Structure formats: structure tokens, C-alpha cells
TrEMBL record:
Gene3D superfamilies: PPM-type phosphatase domain
Keyword Hydrolase: yes
InterPro entries xref list: PP2C (IPR015655), PPM-type-like_dom_sf (IPR036457), PPM-type_phosphatase-like_dom (IPR001932)
Name this polypeptide is given: protein-serine/threonine phosphatase
SMART domains listed in its UniProt record: PP2Cc
Family according to the record: Belongs to the PP2C family.
EC number: 3.1.3.16
Cofactor dependence: Mn(2+); Mg(2+)
Record keywords: Hydrolase, Magnesium, Manganese, Metal-binding, Protein phosphatase
Catalytic activity annotation: O-phospho-L-seryl-[protein] + H2O = L-seryl-[protein] + phosphate; O-phospho-L-threonyl-[protein] + H2O = L-threonyl-[protein] + phosphate
Gene Ontology biological process: negative regulation of growth; response to water deprivation
Residue ranges constituting the PPM-type phosphatase domain according to the UniProt record: 60-352
SUPFAM superfamilies, per database record: PP2C-like
Length: 358
């Protein structure tokens, strides 16, 4: 158990240091929030368009967001290098708000999720390390995934519950999606709530870059999603002027008409099939894997997976990769979606290796 013991001991020391700095903070959540503050001071957290490139890290993140034609930009993002004071870890996420309070909901989930996840991850590791029936070293990959999945499920339930009782944010008719990734060494753990998408660029046998979609777009048109909504007495149908765009509706009202089947907030329809349960998956990163793109549906509505990989990989300056992808998507909106107000468009391009793309 040397690997997990050293990882847990290092994490425990980090939490202990934060508690010592903040003696009034008794629980792990507050210690995790203190870590976030320290990381921000040290330039390890990015919450806007820009670049994260820490000395000695294999990670390089390019982030860009563009406001659409519907009002305030309700997209937001975060990249946290050395997540939880762990040198080999990174957390990044992209959030797409909707509804009158959508931008507030998205930012609230962005702020609360990383700290909550970090706290739950520490607690899960602590319990696993004390459980004599669990051999953490017998299958490190499997146990890591189990620990992260459990941590994510607990975190998303807690974040959604806290959001419902937030005094200053009205999320009854507003909500947000959340697509996040944790990189831990050569593994990435992906958690998705909503219809944003993560696409990996990997090198094929013939040397070309090909896209691998890592997430499912959770829309009400998916049979399993529609079945759950209908079983909960919600309704799924398209409006006459939006053929092919399935939305979620209350049993007896033409509201709220959500275009996704999973989201935080939106408590007006939480009893009718909308859930905030994430799909959690993992991927082993090899030398063939070059980068992953996290983007809101404003990108994927007009740009294919292959096009996104081509745009990012052909950008000479990696720092401008996300901006170039977003600007290409904005131009595509004007050509392909004439007469439709452009959505907010946001992307994170996370490069896995410090060496330039070949």
C-alpha cells in the first residue's frame, strides 16, 4: 500500500497545514477552501480566459470564452494546477448556465465544486486506507476510479443540495451544466452533468490525429434520459419552430423547456426527471494522446469533433488554441445558424505534454 499510503499522507499533511493556518476552521471543506485561496495567490488557479502553464508541469491549458447574442455571458470555467497541493494533479471544469440567474448559478457551482470534491476525495481515501477488506495496491487503476467516482457522486449531490438553499441565488428556474476533469498522473477522470462535451485528440496508427469523444451529451432526446423523465411524469417534446430540439417540460405547463436532461439547479423540474447525477469515466493517458477539449454546446452545435481537433492542433501557438476554436465556432454560427441568436461559446484546451505537437 506504499503508493496510496504516501499519497494519503501527503494529502493529510496538506490539510493539516491549512487547518493550522486557519485554527477556526474545523472541517476538511474549509481546509480545501483555504487551499484554493492559497493556489489563487500563487497563480495556480485561472477563472477567466487565459493560460495556465506552471514550471515543471506537463499540463498546458488554454482557456477562452465569448459572449453570445442572448445577454450576459452565462458560461464560466476554472483550471486549478497542483489540485489539492498535489504536484501531479490538475482540476479543470467548464460550466454553462441558463435561466434568469444562470450566470450566478454557474459561478456558484464553479466555486463550490472543486473544494467539495477535494474534501470528499480525502475522506474517501481515508476510509479506504482503513478498510482491511480493500487492497488498494491490488488494482490501483480500479481503486482510483472507484474513489473518484464515489467522491464525484457525493460532491454533486451536496453541491445541488446547497444550491437549493442558497439565500442569494434563485435557482428555481435557473441552472447550470458542469463538465470537469481531474488529471492525476497518467489518468484522467471525467465527470459530466449536462450537454457540454469533452473530446480527446489521439494519434492513430498512421500518425494522424483523431477525435475520441469522452462524454455523452445528456439531452432529453436520448432514449434512457427521456424514459426517466417520462417515468417521473415530466414531458419531452419539440416545439413546432424547433424541429429536432427536444426539451423537458412540466406535466401541465409549457415550462421550463430545458434542452438538457441533467443540470444543477432548475428545482422547478427536479421532481420530474431532471437530475444532477454525473457520469464519471476514466482514461489512461499515453504518449499518443495529445490534448483534450472541454467546450460548451455553443461550440458543438456548429463544430464537429474532427473539426475541433484540426483547429486546435493546427494552431501554432498553443496559448491561443482555445481562442481560435471559439472564434471558428462563432463564424460557423453566422453561416450555419442564420436567424438564431448565437449562444455563449467557451472552451478549455488541455495539452498533456510539454513538447510541441507533431
Amino acid at each position: 500500500m506504499s503508493h496510496f499510503s504516501s499519497m494519503f499522507n501527503g494529502l493529510a499533511r496538506s490539510f493539516s497545514i491549512m487547518r493550522a493556518k486557519n485554527p477556526g476552521n474545523g472541517d476538511g471543506r474549509e481546509a480545501a477552501e483555504a487551499m484554493a485561496k492559497d493556489a489563487k495567490k500563487n497563480g495556480l488557479i485561472l477563472r477567466s480566459s487565459g493560460v495556465v502553464n506552471t514550471d515543471g508541469s506537463d499540463n498546458f491549458a488554454s482557456v477562452f470564452s465569448k459572449r453570445g447574442r442572448k445577454g450576459v455571458n452565462q458560461d464560466c470555467s476554472i483550471v486549478w494546477e497542483e489540485f489539492g497541493c498535489q504536484a501531479d494533479m490538475l482540476f479543470c471544469g467548464i460550466f454553462d448556465g441558463h435561466g434568469p440567474w444562470g450566470h450566478f448559478v454557474a459561478k456558484r457551482v464553479r466555486e463550490s465544486m472543486p473544494s467539495s470534491l477535494l474534501c470528499n476525495w480525502q475522506e474517501t481515501i481515508a476510509r479506504a486506507s482503513l478498510d482491511e477488506d480493500i487492497d488498494l495496491e491490488s488494482d490501483i487503476k480500479h481503486q482510483r476510479f472507484h474513489i473518484w467516482k464515489h467522491s464525484y457522486l457525493k460532491t454533486c449531490a451536496l453541491v445541488d443540495r446547497e444550491l437549493e438553499h442558497h439565500r442569494k441565488i434563485d435557482s428555481f428556474h435557473s441552472g447550470t451544466t458542469a463538465l470537469t476533469i481531474v488529471r492525476q498522473g497518467d489518468l484522467i477522470f471525467v465527470a459530466n452533468v449536462g450537454d457540454s462535451r469533452a473530446v480527446l485528440a489521439t494519434t492513430s496508427d498512421d500518425g494522424t490525429l483523431v477525435p475520441v469523444q469522452l462524454t455523452v451529451d445528456f439531452k432529453p432526446s436520448l432514449p434512457q434520459e427521456a424514459e426517466r423523465i417520462i417515468q417521473c411524469n415530466g414531458r419531452v417534446f419539440c416545439l413546432h419552430d424547433e424541429p429536432g430540439v427536444h426539451r423537458v417540460w412540466l406535466p401541465h405547463e409549457e415550462s421550463p423547456g430545458l434542452a438538457m436532461s441533467r443540470a444543477f439547479g432548475d428545482y422547478c423540474i427536479k421532481d420530474y426527471g431532471l437530475i444532477s447525477v454525473p457520469e464519471v469515466t476514466q482514461r489512461h493517458i499515453t504518449s499518443r494522446d495529445q490534448f483534450v477539449v472541454l467546450a460548451t454546446d455553443g461550440v458543438w452545435d456548429v463544430v464537429s469533433n474532427q473539426e475541433a481537433v484540426q483547429i486546435v492542433s493546427s494552431t501554432p501557438d498553443k496559448a491561443k488554441a482555445a481562442k481560435r476554436l471559439v472564434e471558428n465556432a462563432a463564424r460557423a454560427w453566422k453561416k450555419k445558424r442564420k436567424g438564431i441568436a448565437m449562444d455563449d461559446i467557451s472552451a478549455i484546451c488541455l495539452f498533456f505534454h510539454s513538447t510541441p505537437l507533431s
